[in-house]
Amino acid sequence: MTLNKEDGSGMADANSYADVPDGDMYHEAHLYASVWTAATEARKEAALMMATRLIDSLFQFNGSRASASQALQWPRAECRDPDRGQATLSVLLPVVSNFVPYDSVPGAVVQATCELARELLVADRTAAPAGEGIDTVSTAHATHAATGSGSDSTSSTTKYSKSDTRQVLPPVVRSMLAKFGAPVSGGSGPVRLVRT
After folding, report:
1. Residue 105: how many CB atoms within 10 A of its CB?
2. Which element (helix H / strand E) includes 86?
3. Residue whose C-alpha is closest to residue 109's, from 186, 180, 10
4. Res. 161: pLDDT tops 90
5. 22: how many CB neighbours lie within 10 A of its CB?
6. What percent of the chain has pLDDT over 70?
7. Under a CB-based contact definition with an 8 Å cutoff, are residues 30 and 36 in contact?
8. 5, 54, 72, 86: which could join 19 in a potential S-S bond, CB 3.0 to 4.6 Å?
9. Largest CA distance in the chain
10. What gap in Å lies between CA 66 and CA 28, rounded to an integer?
11. Is 160 helix (H, G, I), strand (E, B) or coil?
12. For residue 24, which phi and psi values (nearest 5 degrees)?
């Protein structure tokens, strides 16, 4: 698959917010870049495309897509940028705005894509880790005295915790994206009970 970086025009075939040169530049100043620098170009591209899919699936950005035909969530219309000062949109019609320009992808989104791509090269963050959800495991061993011979039995009880789940988006990626939206809620939502 060919990597097609979103350039801010709302491409219908875009599949990444960053390309390999973006990733290389981001990781030049990264203390733990060895996994990225050791990867082949094809692996880097795959990691960037997967990172983009995960960001688009697990994060809801403010505002709305700039175009109905664009493939990715960015570019966006009316997404506030808290770091952007009030800017005049037009000389003829002086409307003041602090929105991200509707024809761009913020640098923080590109950097978050690069960071998540490196994390994906380290480990598959989408797979359930061994023991996920286990709170405690109790094992009991008992010896029973029966008529003339003893018998042994062992029982095991596992208690599960719903809160012990791996985050696909690491906290640093969530922080990089936080000013533009919020993670998609992890809950399953309300369930209607029907009695028969």
Report:
1. 22
2. none
3. 180
4. no
5. 19
6. 68
7. yes
8. 5
9. 102
10. 32
11. strand
12. -60, -45
Backbone angles phi, psi at 94, to 5 degrees: -70, 85
Q: Is the pLDDT of residue 25 over 70?
A: yes
Q: Which two tokens stand for residue 114?
A: 């690069």
CA distance 75 to 64: 9
**113 with 55: CB under 8 angstroms?**
yes
158: left (phi over 0), alpha (psi -120 to 50) or beta: beta
Confidence of residue 97 (pLDDT cuts 50, 70, 90): confident
Tens of pLDDT, residues 55-93: 999 999 999 999 999 999 999 999 999 887 665 555 565
Q: Report how far residue 194's alpha carbon sits from residue 173's, in angstroms, rounded to the nearest whole number.
A: 40
How far, in Å, CA of 124 to CA of 133, rounded? 17
Residue 131 reports pLDDT greater than 90? no
Identity (one letter) of the amino acid at 123? Answer: A
Residue 48: which H helix or E strand, with range?
helix 41-58
Q: How many CA atoms lie within 13 A of 152 on its CB side?
A: 3
Q: H/E element holding 134? A: strand 134-145
